[in-house]
Amino acid sequence: MKSTPSASDHKQSASANTAKNGQIFTPFLPDLCNSQALFLLVLVAELMALLLSVSHSGLKNFSWDILAIISVQIVWVVLLSALVLCRMRSWLGRVSPLHAGISCYGLVLAITLLLSVLGQWLLAGDGLGGGSFDAWQLLNNMAIGAILAGISLRYLYVQQQLRNQQQAEMQARIQALQSRIRPHFLFNSMNSIASLIATAPDTAERVVEDLSELFRASLAEPTLIPLARELKLCQHYLDIEQLRLGRRLKVDWQLGKCNDALKIPSLMLQPLMENAIFHGIEPLPKGGTITLKVAQNDKLLSIVIINPYPLVKRQSALEQQARHNRMALDNIRRRLQAHYGAAARLSSSAENGVFTTYIFCPLNI
User: Fold this and answer.
1) What is the pLDDT of residues 17-43, one digit of tens each?
2) Does pTM top 0.90 for this prediction?
3) Which residues does 290 contact at the CB level (< 8 Å), separation at least 6?
4) Where a domain ends, among 177, 206, 224?
């Protein structure tokens, strides 16, 4: 009954989902309404029917008629239970686990009893309800249903709690990764603001606004935001650094035509721009140009960031730079995997004084 998390699962909140009425709930059971879950449920139901048929008549006297009867009853119990539990999913997530467990167990047993009575009524006598009920058969069905329901619900509950824990841990990692803004950038920004207050108060005010936009994005809930919004955050960051670096910093924006609804993880590009300035532009006496290329095709969004880097460095400084580069790239790589799974890719290359970062994201429109 285990289902593989889809792309939408990666975009859900880690520890909670939002119901239609705005209330927050923690899922008690997996979503049993999607096609993959239903297929697995039917498959397991058929295996249970086969097991019961073999135990009833043995392999030597195996009866396809008995298998068909048991299969129909079990499949209908499983499908109706899945349908009702799916409809109750938001409510189950808002009550205590004890109440949710008792409700699920009682519901499955009630459906089992209802379908067992209905099945006996259809099969009794001439199939029109003319015969008598077999109380022992009814009790037998309920006992089997109680055992299988207990095992199945327990498995589904443990599976969902494990998924809730994994999503909570993933969300915590994303928040920690997203909130990392280098202290030196904050100190440099504060120094720039302090030096501008007396001489250029309007510019100082603009820098404060740019800085507030960056920190607002850093403290916001990790999510997907429009590509245009992410590019605007990069512009805020580069405007601040432009005051400090002046003509040493040049930016070449090569933005292709992209869908306005296209979304990417928040603060994905700004750390890479910061990396390009910290390791590429600052160490070079004459500075250099950072090139940002954004293009979209039918299936992928491609982003390329190109920046120069110094070729002559002391070994210790080179090792430190490489370590910081790897940390920043690993940060973005983990966030891409958290949102897109294996569908997203990040790679980099360094050759002849040019460092290039490549990002490929599946379209999410």
Assistant:
1) 444 444 446 788 887 888 787 788 888
2) no
3) 249, 250, 251, 252, 273, 276, 277, 280, 281, 305, 306, 307
4) 177
